Every structure is written in C-alpha cells, then in structure tokens.
Amino acid sequence: MTIIWIDAYASSVVIREALFCAAERAQTETTLTDNQPMWGRPSRVIGWVPVTMGFGVVDNGKRHA
Question: Which pTM value belongs to this model?
Fold first, then answer.
C-alpha cells in the first residue's frame, strides 16, 4: 500500500489542496506532518501526525497507522 507523507509546513496551501484532491480521488492514504495541529475537512484517507521541531524528525521516527 502506498502512503504519501507531506511536510505540511514546507508545502503551500495550493500544493496541499491539490494533493488532498488527488488523494481523495485515488483513495490513497496521505499523512501530513507538522509541529502544530492541522485542521481540514474530515477524510478517511488524509491524516495528521504531530512531530517535534528539528531536522529529520519524521525520517527518524516515522509511524505507520
């Protein structure tokens, strides 16, 4: 199964919206990471994982749901 991981802080709103639409259409699990809570429309395929600040935090501690 493919899971798309997105650094929410590093991507613009336009890019995130395009990825959200594509994830919903393809029913592909997509996970956003950020050190601040994210909100958006409810989705069965889009989730959020909180991370602490720092370089490579997601790479070093990636969690799979």
Answer: 0.70
